[in-house]
Write a structure and sequence with these properties.
Strands 2, 4, 5, 6, 9, 10 and 11 form a seven-stranded mixed β-sheet that branches. A four-stranded antiparallel β-sheet has the order 1-3-8-7, with no helix packed on it. Strand 5 (45-51) and strand 6 (57-59) form a beta hairpin. The protein has strands at residues 3-7, 10-12, 18-25, 34-39, 45-51, 57-59, 67-72, 77-82, 91-97, 100-101, 105-109. It is mainly β.
Length: 111
Amino acid sequence: QVQLVESGGGLVQPGGSLRLSCAASGFTFSTYWMIWVRQAPGKGLEWVAAVSSTGFSSLADSVKGRFTVSRDNAKNTVYLQMNSLKREDTAVYLCNTGNSWGQGTQVTVSS
């Protein structure tokens, strides 16, 4: 079955960086768009980034210039590089494709 496993979250100071990973299995990863969304405390899901099967990427306005999304089809993994982190980036970050979701990884930006 489809499995998505996120990792790389943690506590970071404002201005810091983190790289999230989402390891995928159970489907033909290289042919699917992969999406990152996040959910801040007490808020709904917010779309963050997407990357096509060929590497075309799109980012939410709130993270443009700070985040990049990429994938390694040989490793069945999608990445979210997050730089210049702000307190408002604090959220659970989830990986998604189709109807499948990972369990999420917590990112906390705090001094």
